[in-house]
Amino acid sequence: MSEMATKIFEESLNKVVLVQLKGGKTIRGKLYSFDQHMNLVMEDAEDITESENAKKLGTLVVRGDNVVLISPPPNR
Amino acid sequence: MSEMATKIFEESLNKVVLVQLKGGKTIRGKLYSFDQHMNLVMEDAEDITESENAKKLGTLVVRGDNVVLISPPPNR
Amino acid sequence: MSEMATKIFEESLNKVVLVQLKGGKTIRGKLYSFDQHMNLVMEDAEDITESENAKKLGTLVVRGDNVVLISPPPNR
Amino acid sequence: MSEMATKIFEESLNKVVLVQLKGGKTIRGKLYSFDQHMNLVMEDAEDITESENAKKLGTLVVRGDNVVLISPPPNR
Amino acid sequence: MSEMATKIFEESLNKVVLVQLKGGKTIRGKLYSFDQHMNLVMEDAEDITESENAKKLGTLVVRGDNVVLISPPPNR
Amino acid sequence: MSEMATKIFEESLNKVVLVQLKGGKTIRGKLYSFDQHMNLVMEDAEDITESENAKKLGTLVVRGDNVVLISPPPNR
Amino acid sequence: MSEMATKIFEESLNKVVLVQLKGGKTIRGKLYSFDQHMNLVMEDAEDITESENAKKLGTLVVRGDNVVLISPPPNR
Question: Which helix (H) or strand (E) holds D69?
Fold first, then answer.
C-alpha cells in the first residue's frame, strides 16, 4: 500500500468502515486490524449487502484478496 | 496474516466458526487447524448455504484461496 | 498445507473422499495421491454433482487450484 | 507502470478521475494517492455505476487489482 | 505434480484421455505431450462438451491453467 | 512480450488501436504508451462496446491484466 | 511450454491456427509470433465466435493468459 493508504487505514482503526468485496457483498464494522495485503479484522460487523436486511456477523477476518474498496468513516 | 488475525484464529481453535467461501457457500464447523494461507481444517462441518437445508460434511480441508471471510464464535 | 491438513490427507489415502471443485462440481473417489498444491490423483472416481445422475470417471488427476474443499471419510 | 502512466497519475493528483473496476462499478472522485500496483486513495468519491443514482462514498481506498482503467480529467 | 500424477500422465502418453477445462468444455483426444504445468499437446482431439455434437479439433495445445481434471483411459 | 509483439506495439504508437478487455468491453483510441505488462496509455479513447453508442473517455490508463487482445491499425 | 508444444508452435508459424480464448471467443488467423507465455501475434485474424458472422480484425496481439487452446492447421 502507498504511505497514504496506510495512513488512512491507521486513522480508521477502531472506527466504523465500509468494505466492499468481490462478488458484491458489503460489510460495515469497526476496523480492528489490517496488514499490507488488506487482510482485515473487523468487530461488530454486519453484512449490509441488502440494506433493508442487515445480518450481524460480529468479529470477522476478511481475506485481503477479496477486498475491492474500503471507505473510512466520513469525519476523519 | 496480521498478528491480530492470527490471534483470532488461535482463540477460535476447537470452537465453532462460520466460513464464507467464494462462489457463495457458507460452512459452519469447529476450527481444528489453520495455516498462514488460511487453509483450514474443520470438524463437524455443515454446508449451511441454504439455511433450511444444512448438509453434514464432517471433517473438511478448505483450500485457503477460496476463503472470503471467517467469523469466530460470538463470545470469544 | 498445515501439518494437520497433511495428516488428514495421509490418513485418507486409499479411502473414499469427497472433493468439491470451483464451478460447483463434486467428485467422489478413492484418494490415491496428493501433493502440497492439492493436486490429487483419485481412483474409481465419480462426478456426483447431480446426485441422481452420477457419471463414472475412473482414474483422475485433479489440478489443485480447482479444489475448494476435501472431505475425508466419516469414520477416520 | 510505464513512465508515461506514472506521469499521468501524477498530473491527476488532486483532480477528479474516473475509475472503472472489475465487475462493472464506476467510481468518480479526487485522486489523492496511488502506488505502482494502482492501489488508489480517492476523496469525495461517488459510485456512479448507475448514472441517475450516484452514491456518495467519501474517502476510499481502492485495491489495485480491481482496477480496469482510469481516466484523468479531460483538460490536463 | 506428485510423482504419482506424473506416472499417470506418462502411462497415458499416446492413449486417449478426457480433459475437463474451466468454463465447462470437455476435450477427448490422444495425449501426445505434457509438462509440469499441465500444458498438454493432444492429437485427434474432439470437443465433446455437447456429447451428441462432437467437434473435431485435430492437434491441440492446451494451456495448463485451464485444466480442471484429466482422466486417463480406463484400462491402464 | 515477444520481440515481434513489442515491435507491433512500437509501430502502433500514436496510431489508433482497438483494445478488447476481459468482461467484454472494447476501447478504441490512440496508443500513447505501453509497458511489458501491457499496461496502456491511450488518448482520445472511446468505449465502443455498443457500437451505436460510443462513449468518449479521453485519456485512459488501462491496467494490463485486463487486456485480451490489441489490434493495431490496418495499414501499418 | 514442453518441447513438443514449442515444436508445434514453430511448425505453425505463418500458418492459419484456431485460438480459443477464456470467455468463449474463437479467433482464426495466421500465427506470426509467439513467446513462452503464449502471447501471440496473429495476422489476417478474424473473430469467428459466431461462425455465420465472422469479424475481420487484421493484425492482433493476444495476451497469453487468455488462451485456452490453440489448434494448428490440420495438415502439418
Answer: strand D67-71
| H/E element, D3 | helix D3-12
CA distance C2 to chain E (A): 18
Fold classified for G3-70: SH3 type barrels. (2.30.30)
What one-character DSSP code corresponds to residue F58? E
pLDDT greater than 60 at residue C10: yes
Residues 12-31 of F with CB under 8 A from G: 18, 22, 24
The domain made up of B3-71 has a fold known as SH3 type barrels. (2.30.30)
A contacts of D41 (beta carbons < 8 Å):
2, 4-5, 8
For chain G, say whether E64 makes contact (Cβ under 8 Å).
Answer: no
The domain locations on chain A are 3-71
Distance CA C13, CA C8 (A): 9
Q: Is C9 on the interface with E (CB under 8 A)?
A: no
Q: pLDDT tens-digit profile of G16-69?
A: 999 999 999 999 999 999 998 999 999 999 999 998 889 999 999 999 999 999
- Checking if the pLDDT of D60 tops 60, the result is yes
C-alpha grid cell, residue D66: 480491481
In Å, how far are A38, F54, F66 from F29, measured between CA atoms? 34, 12, 16
Name the residue among C69, C57, C5, C62 with its Cα closest to residue C33.
Answer: C62
Instruction: Identify the CA nearest to D47 among candidates D35, D57, D38.
Output: D57
**What is the value of ipTM here, to two decimals?**
0.91
CB contact under 8 A, F66 and D69: yes
With CB atoms and an 8 Å threshold, state whether F41 touches D70: no
Residues F1 and F67: their CA atoms lie apart, in Å, by: 13
Interchain proximity G57–F67, CB inside 8 Å: no
